[in-house]
Structure formats: structure tokens, C-alpha cells
Amino acid sequence: MSRIAGLRDRLGIAYGGDYNPEQWPDEVHEEDLRLMKEAGVSLVSVGIFSWASVEPRPGEYDFGWLDRVMDRLAGGGVAACLATMTASPPPWLTTRHPEMITVRADGSAISPGGRQHYCPSSPVYRSHAVRLAERIATRYADHPALAIWHVNNEYGNVIPCHCDVSAAAFRRWLADRYGSVEGLNDAWSTRFWAQGYSAFEEVLPPRSPAPFANPAHALDYARFTSDELLACYLAEKEVLTRVTPDVPVTTNFPPSLRPVDQWAWAPHVDVIGYDAYPDPLDADAVPKVAFSYDVMRSLRGGQPWLLMEQAPGAVNWRRRNAAKPRGAMRLWSWQAVAHGADAVMFFQWRQSRGGAEKFHSAMVPHGGPSTRIFGEVRELGRELAASRFLAGARAPRADVAMVLDWPSWWALEGQARPSAEVRFLDAAWSCHRPLYDAGVACDVVRPDADLSGYRLVVVPNLYLTSEEAGRGLTRYVEEGGTLVMSFFSGIVDPYDRVHLGGYPAPFRRMLGLAVEEFHPLAEDASVGLSLGSGTLWSEEVRLEGAEAVERFTTGALAGEPAVTRHRFGRGEAWYLATRPDPAAMRVLFDRVREAAGVGPVLPGLPDGVQARARETEEGRCYIVLNHGAAAVDVPLPTPMREELAGAGPAASVRLEPSGVAVLRPG
Ligand code: GLA
Ligand code: GLA
Q1: Which residues form the Glycoside hydrolase family 42 N-terminal domain (predicted)?
Q2: pLDDT of residue 347
Q3: From ligand 1's centre to the CA of 213, what distance in Å?
């Protein structure tokens, strides 16, 4: 905790971006520092892809340029989030050791020449990575610029490796997990299709089995991949904490959330880092990223996290890469702070001249400091520097928790399911959105979390459920909680074997129903409900104590239950047998949460206005964001001061389109 407190005291709300000085000559570095000061930059992530620049030939180091960069940063009062530089192994290493290059599931190897082309199980890669981390750690341990370590980069974006080295590591991982090959055969249901193994040596990575991979095999490979990447992270972290015990260590989780089990990683990441790239062309980008931010805040129980990367304008890796509309950069940055971020960082500081990311926006664009983007960067830097009082402030615990489990996510999206269109993130977004639109805060929890403090627990598509998690959720309702569960939950155990006894066996008693058969809908089809329509999925539900709140009004299941409610113990469990359209979801969620006594962060928020709270030493502070296109007046429950404009206590605050208010008790 003290390592984090030190960081907060030093940086306030940290501001800056990825800094890649090796792409530029010395004169530019001088200008960099001048412009960083002008922009209020307090932290830069240095050298994330610098391996080949600090070790141009095997064992031959060139730290001179980096020494000068670090000295300059220290002289200018800019702190370094110093990278271990291990995300892109240099050509000399892959040429000498082609066996460390990632092999895709189809057997083809990734060609070096991009980045992140390493096999996480490769002892060669690991030893070189650890050696480099140690070099960097010892060289800069006492450097005044050093504030925090940035291990590797976006581990989750490494393509899962299927090479022979990975195969051997996978077998060891399986032997550890199952003890015996009989245990493996049982867990993987290998009597099916004559897959029984006589020894661990026979097991391969799920390269491209036809017609389908064994789903338990594929699921374990996803677990194994997450664990191997974590082992790479831990190997580097061990070096860093040994050499610099007082310097916090982070790594940046990539935007998609899915690839690694972040519950397993979070205890080892001193402060969570996240890269967010909401697509300006996606009308739902803002509510979607709000969910990601809720995940990040929740990973370490509400501890502030770092927005490690975002784009000041456009990215360059989508098919169409739109610039952010005027004001969006500021508004979306504040959105992260509203959701508990203690840093607003960008990819990258200075827009590259060459290379694959030269059309990715940057804080200093090709057009230089006279551009609109740099003007907005400077303005935001000023605001954040004036908002130090927010740093370290935690969000109050929400009344609502949403359950998220990575193995369940991976298993849900495996092959040969009732519908390949059922995807976890869509389910999570569809349940998060009605809360978001109603201005209600939401935490994210693991399925086996202690839920007793929450008034409402939302369970989207928890396809895979351990017996223990099933009991925990059931107990939560029994003891008076309100729970909403969406379809295709509680179907399989941690080995992707069906829980027998009627779907969803672990939750049947709690929900007061049984599901007889799945009826996924055709693409773009819907089925009638009295509230609107159901999409994606429908299923045949037999009531066993629950009441039907909604019934299907059209289709094969007309007249059958579509949404149910069951009083169970002292609580209440709701079940969605389809995905109601967004308007219907809003009506249902409003009903459920009002009955559960869950209200918005601030009452009376106009449509399109979002508010989140953080507990500062001087009391609860609200960050209010106008995502709408019109100016609005936001009523306040008690008079508050607005910090950004420096306005005295008032009973309401006016927000222009894309406007932001930071409110403190008057
Ligand atoms: C084919 C195969 C069966 C089974 C069915 C499933 O007919 O012969 O083993 O896989 O498909 O539809
Ligand atoms: C990721 C990476 C960065 C950069 C950005 C571009 O987040 O971590 O190195 O490539 O994407 O959007």
C-alpha cells in the first residue's frame, strides 16, 4: 500500500503517455521536455519497445541514450514508468532462436518483423527477458526519474502459442492440475470420440482438431496460456521487487479484457493498468468502456487504477479509424477518472514518423504543438494538475455487483454450442447498460466473492459454474439478496461437463424453474414480449415455484415464460430466458433495482449525463459528465462547489455538450 501511496503523493492524477525517444534524435528530446512541461505531463511510459535499442547485439548494451533521456526527465520533473522492454524481442534473438517464435493453432509460425512474436513458455525467451529486466532494474534502481515499473506490454495480446515447447509445458501444467492421466481423462470426458490418453506425453495443444476440439481441452489451454503469460510477468516482477522493493510494478491490460484471467493476475499487479480505445464510430462506445473501467476499479477491490493508454484522436488498427469528436478526448479522459482512474495516459507522446503506427494519433501530432490536439492536451493537463485532491480517492462501494469469470467466458465462446452468437461481453454490456443509463454505479466481482454487502447481484451468462460458486450465489439470495441471472448460466462445471439434474442445476432451486430446451433465434430475428422483444435466444422454461413476469407473445414458445421472478428464502431471484431489447431491459432493471432499494449516484440526472463519486479526504466528490448533444442543468442534492471552473457553492450545475463538472461539498 505504501508503494502506491508514494506514487500518488508524487504524481497526483498522473498525466502523460508512452514515450519512445529512440525514434528521435537528441534535438527532438529537448523539445519533448519543453512541451511536456507545457502540457503538464507528470509521467511517461519509457522504452516499451526499446529492446533492440538497448541491446543491439547479444549481450552488448547501449544505455547511453536512455541515461540521457532519464536524466532529462528527472531534470524536467517528469517521472518515468520505465518499461522492461521485453514485448518485442530483437531480430538477433529470434534469428539465433527461431524456436522461441509463436506458432499459431494452424501450425504456421508468426514472422518476426511485427511485435509480440514470442512463445511465453520458451525458456530462451524467459531467460533473456529476465536478464534484460535485471539489467534495466539495476541500472535505474536509484534514478530519480523512476516512479513505477511497466512490465512488458499488453501480455493479453500475445497470440497463444502452439509450438512443441508449449506442448511440453502444457503437459507439465496438466500433470500438476490433474495428478494422473486418469484424472485428466475424467475431467476431459475423453471416452467421447476415443480420446482417452494412456500417458501425458500423448497430449498436444489443441492445434486444429477436426471437426471440433475437445471443449475441456480447449478451455484448459486458455487457462494454461493465461498462466504462462502470468509466469512471464512474475519472473520479471520478482527481479524488479528484489532490486527495487519500494517501486510499484504494473503491466497494462489490453482493451479486449478477454485473453487473461485478470482475477488471477490482479493480486500481483501493484496498481492495475488498462489500455482503452473506445471507437468514435461506435454509438455505444462510452457505455461499453464504462464497463471495462468498472472491471479495472474492481480488480483490486476499488483501488484506483491507471488509464495507461488511450488515443488522443484516431487509432490506426481498425478498418476505419475515426478521429475523436471535439471535446471527446477531455470528456472520455474524465470518464476514466470518474470510474476511479488515478492516471490519464496516452499512446503516444509524439506521433511516429515511420513504422506501423505513424497514422495513430499522439499528444504531439505530426503537425506539432500548434495543432488543436496539442491545445486540448495542454488544457487537460492543466485541469488534471489542479485536481490532485482526487488522487487516491476510492469510489464508494456500489450497491450493485456484476459477476465476471474468465474461464466461464472462454468456455461459453467455445465451439459446438447452441449458438455461436452468444458472447459474454454482449451479455455483460446488455446488463450493464440499463444500470449505466439509470446513473447507477456497478462493481464487478468474481463468482465466489462475498456478496453480502450488495443489494443487487447481476449474473450475465455464467455458463460455467463451480458447485461452490453455485452455493454462494444461492446463499446470497436465501439471505435476502436480489439477483438477476441471464440465460445459459449454470450449465457446466469447471471441466465443461454438464451439471446433471436439469438446467441450470446449480440454480434451479434458487430460480424456481427448469430449462427444458434451448431455442436460439435466427440472425437478426426477435421474439415478442409484452414489453418489447427478445433477441438472440429463447428457451423453454418450466416453472417450479417462480412466476412469469413476462411471456413470449410470438414464435414457437408463445405463451411460455420469458422473464421470471422467484421469492427464495428472504430474497428474490429473477431470470431472463431471452435477451430483452435495450428498452425492455431498462424497464426490467429499473423495476428490479427499485425493489432492491438501489438508486443512482445522483438523483435527477438528465438523459445522457453520467455521474460517479470518489471519496476524498474532504468528503464525497462527484464527477459529472455530459455525453449528450445539448447543454443541461444538473440539480444537486446539496449545494456544491465546481472545481474546474472554480465556481462557488450552487444548487445546480450547467454542463455544455461534452461538459465535465468536478463537484465538492460546498
Ligand atoms: C454425424 C456423426 C455422428 C454425430 C452426428 C451429429 O452424423 O456420424 O457421430 O457427430 O453427426 O449430428
Ligand atoms: C496498444 C499498444 C501500444 C500501441 C497502441 C495503439 O495499446 O500497447 O503499443 O500499439 O495499442 O493503439
Answers
A1: 18-385
A2: 98
A3: 15
Give residue 356's identity as a one-letter amino acid code.
A
pTM (2 decimals)?
A: 0.98
How many CB atoms are closer than 10 A to CB 87? 24
Considering only CA atoms, which residue is closest to atom 4 of ligand 2? Answer: 347
- The helix/strand/coil state of 297 is helix
Q: How far is the CA of 19 from the centre of ligand 1 (A)?
A: 56
Instruction: Read off the DSSP letter of residue 606.
Output: P
C-alpha cell at 473: 450465489
Residue 255 has pLDDT above 70, yes or no: yes
Range 115-118 contact pairs with CB under 8 angstroms and sequence separation of 24 or more = 115/49, 115/87, 115/88, 116/87, 116/88, 116/153, 116/154, 116/157, 116/158, 116/159, 117/88, 117/89, 118/89, 118/158
Q: Distance, CA 322 to ligand 2 centroid (Å)?
A: 16
Phi-psi region for residue 384, left (φ > 0), alpha (ψ -120 to 50) or beta?
Answer: alpha
Other CB atoms within 10 Å distance of the CB of residue 555: 16
Cis peptide preceding 348, ω within 30 of 0: yes
Q: Per the structure block, which three cell numbers stand in for 399?
A: 450497491
Residue 507 and residue 473 in contact, taking contact as beta carbons nearer than 8 Å = yes
Residue 116's CB is within 10 A of a number of other CB atoms, namely: 17
DSSP secondary structure letter of residue 597: T
- What is the tens place of the pLDDT at every residue in 444-499? 999 999 999 999 999 999 999 999 999 999 999 999 999 999 999 999 999 999 99
Among this protein's residues, is 134 annotated catalytic? no
Mean pLDDT of the chain: 97
Cβ of 360 less than 6 Å from ligand 2: yes
Q: Where are the alpha helices (DSSP H) in 244-325?
A: 262-265, 285-299
Query: CB 211: neighbour CB atoms within 10 A?
Result: 7
Give yes or no for a contact between 133 and 54, defined as CB atoms under 8 angstroms apart: no
163-198 pLDDT, tens per residue? 999 999 999 999 999 999 999 999 999 999 999 999
List b or e across 497-530, with b for residues whose CB sees 16 or more CB atoms inside 10 angstroms.
Answer: bebeeebbbbbbbbbbbbbeebbbbeeeebbebe
Which of these is catalytic: 55, 228, 236, 309? 309
